[in-house]
Amino acid sequence: MGTAALPRFPHCEGKPVRMTVLEATHITKSFVGVRALSDANFALRAGEICGLVGANGSGKTTFARIVSGLLMPDGGELKLYEKPVNLRSHLDAERFRMAMVHQNLSLVSEMTIWENISLGREATGAMALLDNRAAVAQAQAAMETIGVKIPVHERVKNISPDEKQLVEIGKALAKDPRILILDEPTASLDFHQVESLFRAVRQLKDHGVAIIFISHRLWEVAKICDRLVAFRNGETVGELDFAVQPREEKLIIPLITGQEAKEVVRKRSSVREEEISRHAAGGVALELRGVSLPRRLSDISFRLRPGEVLGLGGLQGQGQEEILMILAGYLKGYTGEIFVEGRPRALRNTRQAIRKGIALIPGDRHKEGLFLEHSVFSNLLYPKVSMHRGSFFLPRRRFQKIATEAIDSMSLVPPNPRLVVSQLSGGNQQKVVVGKWLALSPRILLLNDPTKGVDVGTRQNLYAIVSRLAESGTSVILYASDNQELIANCDRVLIVFEGRIVKEMTADEVSEEKLVVSSLNVEHTGEKAPEPAEGRGA
Amino acid sequence: MKVPRAFRGIMQDSSFPSFVMLVLLVIVNAVLQPGFFSFQVFRMNFMTFTPLILVSLAQATVILVGAVDLSIGAGISLVTVVMASLMQDSPLSIIAVVLLGVALALFLSFFNGFFIGTIGPPPLIMTFATSTMWFGTALLIRPTPGGHIPEAYYTIYSRTLAGFLPVPVLILLVAVAFCLLLGRTRSFRHLYAVGGNERAARASGINVTWTKIFAFLVSGVFVALAALCLVGQTATGDARSGQGFTLNSVAAAVIGGIAFSGGKGNYVGAIIGGIILGMLINIIYFANITSFYQEFMKGVIIIVALLFGAVPRLRRELAQR
User: What's this model's pTM, rounded to 2 decimal places?
Assistant: First the structure.
């Protein structure tokens, strides 16, 4: 198993750059009765970035896993470098110099970054013993190409999710691939990190690497890809070539949903103001005064009116999540005051927060949102059950009614409360996460990057529910790593930078450009020296 | 508190709490056991410590890969029984039977590893099942303790080489050298990956099945050494002689900072854990605690050791509040 001796492919070197490096025709794949792919067709040329888009459950990831040898197709033909191949394992695919950046991270958290990057292809010296020095050097080089400055000796468990994502990308690059598959590489990155990723991707493209770019963020796809292929229900349904077609999201959405792009009409902000002021008779829903958390947050103060949607923006990991975590009762040890509906409240644990009507919808639905092996019914009712007071036995009939209502209002597919959650598609799982809190009719809804890895249709659905809730007087705090979502959904946006609120924008003022500028806090230099950010490793 | 960087690294090591514990125990042990620092006592202590350390290493290896082996004790018993039944006085026979014992221990471990790696039953259940198989086989061969171990064999174990190196310590040094070499192999790195996150390991192109079998084989090497020591120590074959080792090995590994969830910990911790357990048995003996309380006290001390190990984690959690 010598990693140094990669088999050489005379047919992939020295030929004209535009050769087709990957061609998949009529690929099919089923999982225990469920058809994941029915007719997938895809072609990729050297030195090309090709987008792969589609709704959740349209088969993008399945296709990527087949191409990279993690799954075997049931039928169809796969050609690499114009020769038919039969990939039996991931190792097989790597021999064809293919690398994949996984959506569900493939990192071992107890190991260091460099150990992870070299994992599975460790360099060996004399007597087949490990050559650690070479591995460290290789890891450092890989991290430098994507412009990341994290010491490679850090253990993966100590770094943040976005840094993990970057390490994952570094791990793929260290394999020096000719074909690179990026499965939602930007899902947890902010625009700054996306920029440096894009620079690296373009560089690879210039070196003749062929890249498949899978993403739900359509403007990213429109921005970086040369071409795109759309999947719907396991089939290839269309293709766009940006060489001849304009780079517009409008053209992509119909391919994904199968319907004409709906213009999401935003209510005029004056209309929203009126709505909010109607609810505001009840006072202020939530107020923070000088809330600080050692090394994370300093002096956070803001007011939230009933029925208002407040956005938290800024670069990744500047303290937005911490604010939500404090309000949801996860983080203790903060100083400052929190008023819920005018009364000072200490939020010492999640239970107290929930009792005050505060519900957090987490971004990582697998970790905090769901019991994957339990039924939809149980998942929808856990918060209700845990808050149940009174009778010793649970009122089963009433709970069933609540569950049915929640399923209806979320338009869950299929609408069966007995299904185990892990059998649902990603988008529908996300609906369950939201639905279970709706049963408690929260007064303040906290959304922590709720659309991570969620397709356009589901995303619109989710925000439709949010705006319905806001209309009925529920206050919402939304943290999204995606600026477009803040612009589209918030009445007001606060920009957080190094644990402080540095800018407030109303819906009329907010724009992509302004968000970017204030996120970098460039206007505020000179005002007062920001304290050094000492986020991690404590 | 300002602590030098290198030292901070040591303090964050998973085996650091057990090291602190060890220092405390050495002090207590030195007070209770007369002549603790004399060579004789050192030699006698290592005669009992060595098998414990070896099974601790064996257990640590499988726990690191995310499994557990409940058949270690029964496996050792079976090896002693087979050896005691076959060994003759001639040097050739001794060597042949020793090799056979090693091969048997490796086979038993391979059997576990092969099934767990390929078919994937829960290791706890699988190795529990095999442990009763090994125990039954040992009883079948030798219902009562006995058999013949030549004097030439068991006197070696209590001998001192070159005037300063007791044989049990030599065996331990061999094991340590083996560990050091192992630490630089690719499969050993993969062992951590599989134990830490099996899906990630698979996605990185690691052969998970082989890695699990590898872990059990390595464990088998330590089990074999432990069995050879035990035969040297007791000079009989006994179907029950290994019984205590199974859970003691689990306790030693966990005390040494090997995370039961796998992928975290190291051999230094496992060795310290083994010594700690040996010292505990010593202390309980020399503190003149009635034998009824011995087992009870052992449990209490193990829990104390586990609390020690939890201190860094608790501190981290407190710091986050």
Answer: 0.74
